[in-house]
Amino acid sequence: MSKVFMGVRLQRLREERKMTQAALAKTLGISPSYLNQIERNQRPLTVPILLRIGSVLEVDPQIFSEHGSANLVADVRDILSELPGSETTSFAELKMLVENMPGVARAILQLQRRYRMMAERAESLEAQFDSNEGNQSALQPSADEEVRDYLNGRQNYIGELDEAAEGVGTITGEALRARLLQLSGVTVLTATGEDTLLRKRRYDSQQRVLWLPDSMNPGQQAFQMAAQLGLLEHAGLIDTLLIKAALSSEAARNGARLALSNYFAGATLMPYTAFLRAAEATAYDIDVLAHQFGVGFEAVCHRLSTMQRPGFSGLPFFFVRVDRAGNVSKRQSATAFHFSRVGGTCPLWIIYEAFSQPGRILRQIARMPDGSTHLWIARQVSSGPAGFAAPSKSFAVALGCDISQAHRLVYAKGLDLHDPSAATAIGTGCKVCERRDCPQRAFPSILPR
């Protein structure tokens, strides 16, 4: 048996029975100073003393077992990981808290559950009463949400970066390498090893070397080179955009800087005018566009959601990326489609079906609770190094548009866009969905009846 230090728990049991240290020590057959050391965690609880405690205090000695605390330690650790500065809390401290003060640990869990419930209710009510006229949220958004709000507020279109990217001209991977070396003195090298699996690119500003993992295909490498080119050649423009964005935290500014550099990369490889004309000519056929511009399926979907130049705009798309667990890592909207921040997403949405049919483009006519109807297409995408058992990432991406514009897409062929019965009834997430009779409901709705 390992040494058990649970003095606070023993002290609580003693006080509940209104016993002094001297009285309990006498009953246990030990000295008051020995009991005092046990309660202060200066000495462990031995098996004979545990058995005597069980008999005297009429409790199961298993309440002092460490095994029953493992789940509680994990739960408290998960909660604290969401708080800023929690990285200074060690596992040993959490273990000591749970083992000695399990009541306090459970109270922390209860407080966190109540906070989440109230936060979800507040965001739900705000969504109902938001007039889309710039109302300030009562809850401070996360850095990621703040960046998404900034992009969506601009209809996911950053004209300044698009114009700068068009000035680069038609570009290839080799041309990008040459441009980085000629104008910025940056050498692009291919790296191997475990460290390269942790990031898409690594830039050494001292040596002026851009390292790219060898697992990337040429299109992915070109994208990363273009993103670094944007950070170097257009640092002033990006800084100006960040100042105008008036983001609230350094984390949000860093996230926005990354998003803007990626926007520039997409605009460089898929120049606005040429890309939009090609999209219209192919009826927005994503595979054809990916082949024509040398990029991946996801990159084309993302770029299509940015085609909102005044006077020369493309279809207003919404773009989403999720993983198998339902975590939404990207959501961009060039129109008024509302992505819920609470309650997850709807399991009836075609995007989740894509994981079971890798490689296929799936289609769905979906109707929201407010009556709006959309055409969605979805496909699974994967990235990462090749090889057996090599770590990789798997996502599903979806692109959607209002049903009134769906006839312009090649993916509408063979679908009856005007048949109401052809639409699947979906929602924004169980907790904020009005459909009380949904067969896939996982949680009761928090909306008032």
From TrEMBL:
<dbReference type="InterPro" id="IPR018653">
    <property type="entry name" value="ScfR_C"/>
</dbReference>
<keyword id="KW-0238">DNA-binding</keyword>
<dbReference type="InterPro" id="IPR010359">
    <property type="entry name" value="IrrE_HExxH"/>
</dbReference>
<dbReference type="InterPro" id="IPR010982">
    <property type="entry name" value="Lambda_DNA-bd_dom_sf"/>
</dbReference>
<dbReference type="Pfam" id="PF01381">
    <property type="entry name" value="HTH_3"/>
</dbReference>
<dbReference type="InterPro" id="IPR001387">
    <property type="entry name" value="Cro/C1-type_HTH"/>
</dbReference>
<dbReference type="Pfam" id="PF06114">
    <property type="entry name" value="Peptidase_M78"/>
</dbReference>
<dbReference type="Pfam" id="PF09856">
    <property type="entry name" value="ScfRs"/>
</dbReference>
<keyword id="KW-0805">Transcription regulation</keyword>
<comment type="similarity">
    <text>Belongs to the short-chain fatty acyl-CoA assimilation regulator (ScfR) family.</text>
</comment>
<keyword id="KW-0804">Transcription</keyword>
<dbReference type="InterPro" id="IPR026281">
    <property type="entry name" value="HTH_RamB"/>
</dbReference>
<protein>
    <submittedName>
        <fullName>ImmA/IrrE family metallo-endopeptidase</fullName>
    </submittedName>
</protein>
<dbReference type="InterPro" id="IPR050807">
    <property type="entry name" value="TransReg_Diox_bact_type"/>
</dbReference>
<feature type="domain" description="HTH cro/C1-type">
    <location>
        <begin position="10"/>
        <end position="64"/>
    </location>
</feature>
